[in-house]
Write a structure and sequence with these properties.
single chain, 327 residues, mainly alpha, Rossmann fold, Tyrosyl-Transfer RNA Synthetase, 5 strands, 55% helix, globular, binds adenosine-5'-triphosphate, binds L-tryptophanamide
């Protein structure tokens, strides 16, 4: 039997090249080698307030972008988290074996909590729900960007703890990070991870941005005080642009070095912009086709949920049996 893969993205904000290079591109690459489930994690999105009608359309937009990027719904299951109730059901059972201290140590929790006056319980529970997403399907591999590595560690700890308390129940998953592009930084501030929820106009390139917008954002990217690329001393802004080029082009380190060493920043930016424009052009086209076909997306999401539901049911049945819950 093929190893199962599970991953997901939150339907909050616009998907950007960090999401693509860190995760989505890998999903497309491995989808024929594994049994894959790609989820739109709407229950995670509502840990922060989302406007209901915007959330409803974002869920469909993200699903369409998965397909536009090359996920084939005949091969992989594409589904929405809240359409399979077992995600929330298993999350409760896992909550009961998770020490609060483990959750309070999560860096993303600390960063989000620091920004709020009153911290919703969902922000703290967020990684338990993520563990439930993965363990529910007995996934062996989880392809994500670098910022999710700590949550994956926690998922393994929860699985191991459950297995040791109640007997072997869950597959303990491993994390799959891309070799290049696992952490794309903000174009306006290369000290911060590129993020959907950041506000700056020149922070990110969104997957559906038109070519002129992409060029503008990249030409305005923060570099450093040197005039041209010097690999030995390059600052984070320049290294970020080089990573973006490398991840999109698939070039190795030697090719990148040979091509860009000594190049003026203006030319570096032009080349990065043209690379990104050409790689994203097919996304916009396919996206329009997908959303233009009445009923297609709903069919994909409905079939995705139907395909994965029996796996989820089986895990919940097993967990209930192990824990002695009524069934
Ligand atoms: P938010 O700002 O709303 O938290 P996000 O941009 O971090 O959003 P997520 O939905 O949390 O996006 O992440 C989806 C996937 O994209 C995850 O696998 C995550 O690791 C990856 N990812 C997010 N940002 C980056 C980035 N800057 N570089 C590489 N991968 C990223
Ligand atoms: N927390 C993840 C999204 C996510 C996820 C998952 C990723 C929720 N459940 C399961 C991989 C596997 C994020 O990217 N913010």
């Amino acid at each position: 039997m093929k190893t199962r893969v599970f991953s997901g993205m939150q339907p909050s904000g616009n998907l950007h090249i960090g999401n693509y290079l860190g995760a989505l591109k890998n999903w497309v690459r491995i989808q024929h080698d594994y049994e894959c489930i790609f989820c739109i994690v709407d229950l995670h999105a509502v840990t922060l307030y989302q406007h209901p009608s915007e959330l409803r359309s974002k869920i469909r937009e993200i699903a369409a972008l998965y397909l536009a990027a090359g996920i084939d719904p005949r091969v992989s299951a594409v589904m929405v988290q809240s359409s399979v109730a077992a995600h929330a059901e298993l999350a409760w059972m896992l909550t009961c074996v998770t020490p609060v201290g483990w959750l309070e140590r999560m860096t993303q929790y600390k960063a989000k909590a620091a920004k709020q006056e009153s911290v919703g319980d969902g922000i703290l529970q967020y990684p338990v729900l993520m563990a439930a997403d993965i363990l529910l399907y007995q996934a062996g591999i989880v392809p994500v960007g670098d910022d999710q590595a700590q949550h994956l560690e926690l998922t393994r700890d929860i699985a191991l703890r459950f297995n040791s308390l109640y007997g072997e129940t869950f597959v303990v998953p491993s994390t799959s990070l891309p070799t290049v592009g696992a952490r794309i930084m903000g174009l306006d501030d290369p000290e911060q991870k590129m993020s959907k929820s950041a506000s700056g106009a020149n922070h990110a390139v969104a997957l559906l941005d038109p070519p002129d917008r992409i060029r503008k954002t990249i030409m305005r990217a923060t570099t450093d005080s040197q005039p041209c690329v010097q690999f030995e001393t390059a600052g984070p802004g320049v290294l970020n642009l080089l990573s973006i080029y490398q991840a999109f082009s698939g070039w190795d380190d030697g090719q990148i070095r040979q091509h860009f060493e000594g190049m003026r920043y203006g030319d570096l930016k032009k080349q990065v912009a043209e690379m990104v424009v050409s790689q994203l052009a097919p996304f916009r086209e396919r996206y329009q086709q997908i959303v233009g076909e009445p009923g297609y997306l709903d069919r994909v999401l409905h079939e995705g949920a139907e395909r994965v539901a029996p796996i989820a049911q089986e895990t919940v049945r097993l967990v209930k049996e192990r824990m002695g819950l009524y069934s």
